[in-house]
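User: Can you write out an input/output pair for a complex, sequences first and structure second?

Assistant: Here is one pair. Inputs:
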Amino acid sequence: MGRHLHGRGALFDADPAGLAPRLVGLRPHHHRGHPVEHPQELPFVVLTGARGLGKSAVLGELLDAYRGHTPVALIDCAEPQFAGPPAERPAESWSPVAQGLLVIAEQLAAPVTGAGRITFPRLMSGLVAVAAGGWGDADSERIRREVERILLLNESGSWVSGLAGRWAGKVAAKVVAAATGTGPLLSGAIEATLESVAEGFTSRRHQKASVWYRTYPNAGGHAQRGLMLLSGHFRAGGTSREHAERYLVRALLADLTEAYAGVLPRMQRLGRPLVLIDNAQTAPGPGLVEAVLRDRAEGVTDQVAFVAARRGEGRESLRSAVRRELAEVARRSGWAPEAAPSSRALLVALAPLTPDDTLHLIGAVCGDTPVPPQLPHATHRLTGGNPLGIVLLAESAAQNLPGASSLGELLTAGVRPAEDRPAVPTYQALLDRLVPAEHLEELTVLAAAHDHDSACALAAALLPDTFGPADVRALQTRLAEEGLPTVPGRFVGDPFVRTLLLLRLHLRDPDHASWRTAHETLSAHYPDPEHAPYRLHHELALGRTESAVAHLRDGFLSLDTRAWLRTLRFVASAPYFHAHDAEGRDSTGPGDRRAAVALGRTDAGQEPPEGVDAVLHLRIRRLLHAVWLLADPLVLPDAKVCDRLRFELEQLSNLRPAGNALLWRASRDWPAAALAGRPMDGPDDGQGAGGADDRSGEA
Amino acid sequence: MARRGVGTWVRESVWEIPLRRYLALLVAAALVAGLVFAVRPLLRDDRSCAPGVSRPEGSDECVGVATGSYDFGQTRLRDVVRAIRRENDRLKPGGYVTVALLLPYTSTSATSLNDILHQLQGAYLAQYRANHDSNGEAPAIRLVLANPGATGGHWRQTVDQLTRMTTSADRLRAVAGVGQSTDNAKKAVRELTRRHVPVVGSSITADDLANGQHGQDPYPGLARVSPTNTDEARALASFARVSAGKALLVYDKPGDPYTRTLQRSFAALIKGSPYEPQPFTPPADRSQEGTTANTFRQITHLVCDTSRETDTILFAGRHTQLRQFINALGGRGCQDRRFTVLTGDEASYLTHESELDRTALRHRLAVRYTSLAHPDAWARDTARTGGSAADFGALNELLAGARRAPVGPIGSAALDDGQLITGYDTLQLAVHGIREAVPDGRKIPGLADVGLQWPQVKGSLRVDGASGWICLDVHGNPYDKAVPIVELTPEGGARFVRIAWPEGKPPAKDCLPPSP
């Protein structure tokens, strides 16, 4: 049994049954039947979610859970083999869908417990017809290579065919002879294939299969003519090719239906065949999905369980699909088809993992390595439940503990993906998989931005001239398509990805030049007083705290308490990657000085400006550093600092009778939230008060 | 998967897949059935000995009707059994009827076995003659061996089997033999005749194993070759002229049908004797030694104590006890006195008895008895009716031919104990009855019809037996059958003395029993 997936019980639970056993009709990892939820028509399940949410892991687990028990195929549409035709093969006789069908059928053919191989005579004939369209100038060796792979789909693998000799080899020779002979190439090859199907075996099933293409439109009752039309449509491209591809998909499903029909197969096979399509947003995914959905909508039924995974929500392509959260389908899907083809799909959004799942996952990965008790919750706060983030951080922890002391160090520390592979910084490994590689550079820069305007300012300062405002918009759209949340006030909505990008920005240059330029650009972008928090936020990111302390100190008495707390949180949400001097050199060496300031150990050396309340100044300074530290998702919460935070807020609440209640509430809630690894939500959050741009108190 | 338990494997790789489930159920059912078939014979040990022969519960004896060539473990029977098998196998299916020779083949007594062997040889010779030397008369005769056990204790099983054979392809039409007149033999004959199976008694002589006693026929369909004890005693009396004052009676108490009728007949002869009859009590199986030897030693004292006119001892007992008594008399005190022991045909068993102290016979002791038959009877006696040397000569001829193939070999044959002659005559009578009962135009007689023939065996329809004429009265008993009186010789054998007749004289030429 493979590694157990955490937090995916809604899919894999056996008792009560999750979605997978109800769909496939088999208990995962067991050869044991289970009643299906939709016995007549079944939904085409599409798992949605952003990168790193574990879609591929779920599909992998499905493959693992059902391999050997029911025919199962997994294709990853992002693989290069679907990107373009192999060398020598003309594009007119190749398409991602045809290639995908071939790969799927090859995997489905494998024998399972209790039943032998499945043969695909219909799909085989169709694929041969399609391939034959590109043999105009091919040498016989290439034809043999191509046709043999396709013909293997019809190998039953039984001893009977073993006795009869390598059927595929013999037929291949016939087809090659027909294709390279003097007669018409295409019809010759098709005729040879069909004859082989009909004559190679005397079984009724093969007779039936050999005449299946009679029903192809305009075939006039001749299977051979049907196949030639199919080949022609395929070569024509465009919608004609789509039509031909739909017929090929139908051939695959018909072969599968045939494999399950009859008394003997019903007594041998449990459940339904399962087809898994990863990265279904790229070709051949959409073509396959649409072909199946359209056929099902038109009443060409099948009993194949499809589970696809696509990035983003697919609002355009699957407009009428039934949408469910993962937890909602745990016991029943509540799916019912409507008229539109896309309503045959059931979109299931994968949810982030819960803190408990995080705890279990880290425990599972780290094994015997002692883990700081706050690490799991802090990891969950940092990653927001992103399974990939949790796993890689846990791997990093397992490989680097106890050397590393904070999450930031775990992210920068190297992690080896495998024993014999070189170590890669963890944040780099994560970004490789969470962010589209072609936009990594741009996003690294723009991660610090808050909105379109600030992004454009950053782009102008740090990106090549070719990257203009239009490209910024395109990138924003791309992020939305990727399934990353859109959050006001954040150019990159996902906090985890944003933190990783900022870390990358910080570490991009040895002297942190990009980092400083970015924050200086942004702080210059907000010169006016009403945007002071933004300016202060970025100054803080650069390590300059004086203005922030002054602003908060002066505002404490004048500003509304609620707004003041919000400002405090927003300013203190600035990233912190230890202090640097003007030349970018580490002024104090690596280490976190915020705790020392927050605990008042540096107060003695501080000289409050003239004419200000020295006690308040120092208190605000300590408070700012405490919040800055505790809100930083990259460090583990410090109980002493939490205590100090509570104390400082209590003291402040005594100074402001008007805001007493709010401050006192914050003095209770914030330390607790920080210790538990939760974001320090203000008492006003959820009430809709305050500006939209600076509500967020955490990075 | 490999780590999973067998239970999971059975559940998931067999049970969950309907085809495999049904196949597995089929295989399991077949296995269980096979196991049952394999284990059942082991649990219930094989009690069969040969076709038709098996060991009953609680016994090691092979009893039943041997339809093949089974010799009941007796090597001396082997040759004749094989000869019978050869003759049986020669017969065409549908053209024969079966006659069973009911004798205690598993007897452990060498004497009894000798008699059995001789009767079987005689029966076989009669079968051979019936099938070969009778102008193709139908039906042919198949001979089988029926064993009720050494003491006849398993007679019921054997009788049941015989009864079944009357309706099967065996077409059993008569049971011959029966052997000694024991209680079990009586029960067997009663049951057989109750089921309308004709029975031809060979050496049964007991009065109560016969019809016509006190005017009743308790065994309808029973015919006998040997005279009743009463007739023997009458013949013996007519020969010895014993009187009350000269004879002492020694008898078996409680006795069996044979000894009781003999005792009654003797007692009637010496009515008013001054000596009280002396009883002895042998074991239930009278072929066993028991403790009677002591009793006989005491009785010999009494014998010597009698008055000197007493010179005859009438012995009503079985042969084992007779042998013990003779041995005891051999050591008697009054060696100077001459005694003659008179007894029934049981004494013929002693002619080849090795444990008999033959020197006793040299000490003024003569043992004379009524033999059922004797080879010298017709050579020495010149009676003109009641039997003939020619009839006996036919048997002699057969016997001579049986020393080698194709008739023989039939093992060592001896005529002097009369058993071979008796067995021969018994089967001859059975064959006579069977063939007389065949309806016109048919080949096979009805079962009960055979028994109805017995009263007609008289006059010209009599059977000219090797032991003498067999003329049956209406009760199936022989009328005025020749009774050879023989005497045991010290050399081991029997010396023919003369023929005695129950009626005091040979029957008339027509051989018709007078009205009672």
